[in-house]
Amino acid sequence: MSYQALYRVWRPQTFIDVVGQEHVTKTLQNALLQQKISHAYLFSGPRGTGKTSAAKILAKAINCEHAPTAEPCNECAACRGITDGTISDVLEFDAASNSRVEEMRDVLDKVKFAPTSVNYKVYIIDEVHMLSISAFNALLKTLEEPPKHVIFILATTEPHKIPLTIISRCQRFDFRRITASSIVNRMKLIVEESGIACDEPALQMIARAAEGGMRDALSLLDQAISYSQDRVTLEDALTVTGAVSQGFLNKIAAAFREKDVASGLESLHELLYHGKDPARFIEDLILFYRDMLLYKTAPKLEESLERVMLDDEFRNLAESTPAEQIYDLIDLLNKTQQEMRWTNHPRIFLEVAIVKLCQMEQRPEMQTAAPKETGQLISRIEMLEAELRHLKENGLVSTGQEPASQQQKQAHRPTKRAFQPATGKINEVLKQATKGDLNIIKANWGEMRAGLLKSHAALINEAEPVAASPNAFILKFKHEIHCQMAMDKHDFIEAVTASLYKLTGRRLMLLGVPEEQWPSIREEFLSHHGGSEEGNVAEQEEELHIAEAKKLFGAEFVEIID
Asked: Which of 397, 445, 494, 505 is the most exposed, fewest CB within 10 Å of its CB?
């Protein structure tokens, strides 16, 4: 064929022609001038960013007759032979179609032979991540101890699939996605040199559709040139890329803002009538609002915009659309996009989404209305307070309740500062307390604690029963705060009494008392009561001393003598 695609005709032949990869080309040029050439390189990055082109340029620069040089001359026999592919010492190996270990060994067997036409043998292995494990192992041995006349250049789009043992033996260069402005500048040069009439908005649309790949951009440009008549226009670029025009997106965004459902659906039907893909349309719409959000938050980052071009209509839309509404729009569009992937009728989901977006409530409007409503409520409250004061002044409303409520609040305040045990109920328990009742509770105390929740068991870690009657028992807490917390927790009291009921068969009432208040309560009870009550308490106190002695010295060493 006499015709060649643009990306083949305009393939970079020098480092300066490699667009958007200055961090790579500058390093390689310095290494060439200083003659610090590595035996292995790894070029990784997205498709169409110049990895293979940079590898061939490096092979020419190394073998150029004017070496050491920062750029190949492209005029000597070595440079022309490498460009034409007629020099066998520079081999391009496609790992995607030659991934087996046998094919890799056929290549590596020739490594030990010296080059015949140039100074260095250069092996360019494209899509190296496609090699099998055995092929990688075969390549690894050669990379460890390569001959002095051999250079390997590995290119890949998926470096994470390459073994680390291979990566560690290479100088790695990561190629970046090319910016839209760099792609546009390169395409301007190409169309000017080729004598092709092309509108700049069309080039910008193609550059954004290429997603950072120069080869993709030149392929789309080639297709747009073939589709157009005398001049490549924006409509031609939209048709080739399948994208939706920004004017259409501005129109449907205006329908969302004005809550015009009819206009939104008419625009959608017009879009589908012209053969646009619903999935591509919703993707463009998401990118449209994404760019709008970036423009509102960081208007100087124009290069970050992926889909839109800053015209007056877009700026007006961005200024009149609050950021909170953009969040809601993107969220709903994203959910619709997910649902459309699993349906045979994406048009229905798209129409429903358009209706929802047109009927969406705007939170900023609600927020601006909130202060007005708050002001109305405040004025209403002030009016009611004035009426209440008027009624009190005329004696129509009793004011005696206010002091009573204040007194009631003051009466409750001491309970928050210090715990007040139920002394009357404690005295009733002490009157009926027996040693046998206390022993029953102590015998089941450990098992009861083990069955409680951790939060409940923590409250009685340092608590112990000190007296018990057939219907209730007194629990002494070491710290007042723990006693306060336990007695305020109804679920704790219920859990303890329920657990003791299961173990003892008795429904016992729990009374808590802090350790610092227990001696005074006990002494006051003994001073007002005598006889058997004092004996019961003394008996239980004696039992506590025995239990404490067993705890300190061990039960086998304690002997009880009456």
From this structure: 505
Among 206-220, 265-279, 449-463, top mean pLDDT goes to: 206-220
Task: Compute the distance between CA of residue 97 and CA of residue 116 in angstroms, rounded to an integer.
Answer: 27
Kind of pairing between the strands at 472-477 and 463-468: antiparallel
DSSP helix/strand/coil, 30: helix
What would the DSSP string read from start to end of 149-185? TEEEEEEES-GGGS-HHHHTTSEEEEPPPPPHHHHHH
Query: Whose CA is closest to 14, among 72, 75, 90, 85?
Result: 72
Q: For the segment 75-90, what is each residue's pLDDT rounded down to a tens digit?
A: 999 999 999 888 888 9
Q: CA torsion sign, 164 to 94 to 52 to 138? A: positive
| Strand ordering across the sheet containing 463-468 | 463-468, 472-477, 509-514
Those residues whose C-beta lies under 8 Å from the C-beta of residue 317, and which sit 6 or more positions away, are 250, 253, 254, 257, 292
Distances (CA, A) of 142 to 40, 110, 164, 315: 10, 11, 15, 59
Residue type, 146: P
CA–CA gap between residue 208 and residue 234 (Å, rounded): 13
Strand ranges across the sheet with 150-156: 90-94, 121-126, 150-156, 40-44, 171-174
Angle formed by the axes of helices 246-258 and 261-273, to 10°? 160
What does pLDDT average to over the chain? Answer: 82
